[in-house]
Fold Divalent-cation tolerance protein CutA.
Amino acid sequence: MTTTIQVILCNCPDEGTAEQIARQLLNTQQAACINIMPGVRSVYRWQGQIETSVEVTMLIKAPVTQFDAICQTICREHPYTVPEIIAVPVSQGFLPYLNWVNEECVPNE
């Protein structure tokens, strides 16, 4: 069963930033649920250097139609120049939960 739900991953520098973005996404009904997972260690190349930082990962559950709006909100609220915003389509899930995600979000027009 293919669904119209996605999980968007976004790393933030701290829990305060993640909470601020999460509340904005929920208040505007762009997302139905966001998990904030602290203590993620990221190792990446940035401007020619290998960097390591402790970040907070957000798992944002939302309809695929909300991706552009969610990207705009994250980019407006996020302190990074290039925030990680990656959408993973949900191929299967518990139908009552998937229905709830759709019902909690305002259709993006």
